[in-house]
Amino acid sequence: MSSANPLPPSSSSGAQPSGPAEFALPLDRLIGKASATSLEKHLGLTTVGELLNYFPRRYLNRGELTPIDKIPVNEDVTIMARVLSVTKRRMRERKGFITDVVVTDDTGALAGLKISFFNGFKAEKELQPRALALFSGKVTLYNHARTLTNPLFELLPDDELAGHEAEFHAQRPLPVYSATAKLPSWKIQRVVETVLAAVDFSRLRDPLPLGIVRREKFVDLEEAYRQIHAPSEPADWQRARDRFRYQEALVLQTALVRRRAQTAAEEATARRGTADGLLAAFDAALPFTLTPGQQSVGDVLAAELSVDHPMNRLLQGEVGSGKTVVALRAMLQVIDSGGQAALLAPTEVLAAQHYQSIRAILGPLAADGILGGLLSGAGGDAPGGVNGDVPASTQVTLLTGSMPAAARKRALLDAASGTAGIIIGTHALLSDNVRFFDLGLIVVDEQHRFGVEQRDVLRNKAHKPPHLLVMTATPIPRTVAMTVFGDLEMSVLRELPAGRAPISTHQVGLVENPGWVRRIWSRAREEIDAGHQVYVVCPKIGDDSDDSDDSDGDDGGYDGSVGDGSGYGSGGVGGAGPLLSAASTGQQGASADQGNPAGRPAGASRPDLAEVNTVVEQLRTEPALAGARIEALHGRLDTEDKADTMAAFVAGDVDVLVSTTVIEVGVDVHNATMMVILDADRFGISQLHQLRGRVGRGGLPGTCLLVTALEPPHPSRRRLDAVAATTDGFVLSQEDLKLRREGDILGASQSGGRSTLRLLRVLAHEDIIARAREDAAEIVRKDPQLRENSALEAAIEAYLNPEKEAFLERG
Ligand code: ADP
Ligand code: MG
User: What is the average per-residue pLDDT within 458-482?
Assistant: First the structure.
């Protein structure tokens, strides 16, 4: 998904107070230097507000001990357990002793968990059999047994104590904070209690409007803070959590709705087009009829381009639904009105492909080089003749970072002089030296690689705010769209053009069917013999840097790298052996994946993942493919080689294209009918869906083989099941969300730092987000400047710009 925060840092330097003074107090005023230093060092918390907004991650009930067999290995955990036995032994090699404490979860599990303390004087003294305690540390596997070594611990008041106090204690949920090895949860809890007692909550202003608090029957803000940190019963923290969750949704949605209102209110140049311009000529020559969806979205765009406020629209569409034509028609309308259009693509390969296919589909409407530019510029130096002349053609220009200097200079000149009507490029379009004569429309293709900041850089290259059309690569769930693209209006292309042949997708598990390797290549042979072409996709390039393909000229970091940054790892140790040799059924280390259901990165990558360079060599000697023309494509090739290879594949001069995910988005070769994805388990669902969308485009049925060397029960194979089961991108995007971790959904910048979603989960809380969206729209409609909602405004500022917030607090 998006690679960036849904909203850019606010640029307003408004001097309004950024929150209640009480919350801005430095922590050391309330809790003493040592604790404050520790909180800052380990958790980065410096103010009262930051600490109080550091919510417990979960709660323990004193009656329920942590199930020992569910404790994840190699993660920092806090567990509640009862001591079963304590024994002491001498160390053999060194001086000193070890105290072995065995704890149980009261489930009668025989083994219990072994905890070892080196020189554990304190443990030996305090941990008596039957004692109840919290332990905090990392559980490791030692000789196949779970062990906790030198954890921090804290005794809990024993629930077996007689008396009123014990009963009271027994009910209170125990908050568990995300802790570190040096700062256990219970220390954080104690500091929070001190702070709760000292804060003057009466000075706190609630970001939630009173009407909403009443309607939703939320607890008030003070109570919410108390209940989330120090609940008396489970219902307390649940109520508090509900209110903070809603608050989070409202702050985010109001920020987005306000941004949308602000940009929509800006003044733009209306681009009404002409009745007898390029667009009309294009439509007349179009070799197919537009789908009803393309037609109606086209009407919406045409109308929005025609008014003097900027269009800001997201176009979601199924893979292959024909978004490019829709965008191109909008571009032509703008050119017909004397403006230029920029098309921003995430990779060089895609930019080059767009350049070629747009020129091809424009046919004679695309002016060629300088000559065409001169011809079309007959009415002046602006594209399409600003003087009211109807242009006969427009120049399409490509601009990427790794173009030869001379060509690049020409492209820059054509953009700045207005000779070029359509400028297609990568991130290179964002650089400072790129100027436009009159940029009227920005189209961002396959948006998930671009953040709002980048959109803004381009917007600022226009004299007046330009119109904006953003297109997603695959459909995304409604609430994700609302959250990630919440500042844009939304259009959806659901249907595919008629006559599309189906793609059949099969999972090829080499563990179960080692012999199938051969059959894959004989299938490929059949396609080639029928005159068709084949893609083979590998997760790695296989040069000495031994890395996934994360560089594509100037697009560093944004190119289709493995797992689009979500780090899908197989986690298997032991390796499966080279995927392509028939005997590749090595043992997968399934045990290492327990507690790793979503298939998260496993640190060291699996050896022997399919690599472009190796696979090319192997396929060239593969008997079934004898005589086939096989070429490699990946981001580290130089631009010319990339372009040559891609052009040769488009021309049908290459039978098998072995590549990385550089072909993931947008590439459109109608004659390609088969795709073999090696180590398919390394890719995410939407990535696989997007990849497979490269075949079956020309009315010829497509076949996609998802090859994996993982054991059938491996969790990563669930993604392959999902992709094989349906070609409905909307279904897959839901499925994808379920299998992913939240941080991956909103991109890297959302998973760390303070402006992450904390309580809100875009999939689970769809209704909350939708309700907050409605409330936000209502609030902004009635009070666009948020004058009546200054506490909400302050919360938005704090959300958008935590650094500034921190600065003001310290200042
Ligand atoms: P995507 O939405 O995935 O970007 P493209 O814009 O690349 O899809 O379109 C896929 C292919 O379908 C292109 O070759 C395009 O020319 C073709 N196409 C687009 N619209 C139609 C249509 N209405 N009828 C037939 N083919 C179409
Ligand atoms: Mg596309």
Answer: 83
